[in-house]
User: Fold Ribosomal-protein-alanine N-acetyltransferase from Roseateles oligotrophus.
Amino acid sequence: MRRALTVLQGPRLLLRAPAASMQAQVLDYHLRNQAFFAPWDPAYPADFFEAEGVAQRLAQGLTSFAEGRAYRFWLSLASAPERLIGSIHFSQVARGPFQNTLLGYSLDEQAQGQGLMNEGLRLAIAEMFSPRVQLHRIQAAVQPQNRPSLAVLRRLGFASQGLSPRYLFINGAWRDHEVFALLNPAWPDEQAP
Assistant:
């Protein structure tokens, strides 16, 4: 089993793995951004905005992180660690011949346009490609209308893999998504997983 670092720090950001102590912070983050995220997120489960549901998801996230099945990092400014401003999630980690994960991310409405997600993703991707986790490929899917998210992926070197029609059911309809991938540049082509 491969273990990622549970805390990553950049020039402005602190990225932390899930912890039970984050319950109030996570709930606050989701509540303040509920309307902002609505056009891009699938429907939330019934308990999404309840303390008990948040606590359960944090516990599951911590277990998945420890077992190497998924890695969620919660973002805060290093200067204000008590307030969460974003999330980066590597889900559905596949080993064997695939060595792949799916990437999702979100950033507080008030933190947009400052390069914070770019900084956070650089840190998190470096960890996923490090010898501690050693993935070969990261895949992300974005609605074509989400221009800021598309720009972030392109700045990070993700290559378009094409359009996936009716990819996810979001905001009452099946939405097309452009699929992107980033390959680990340190993984030689002839190296077996």
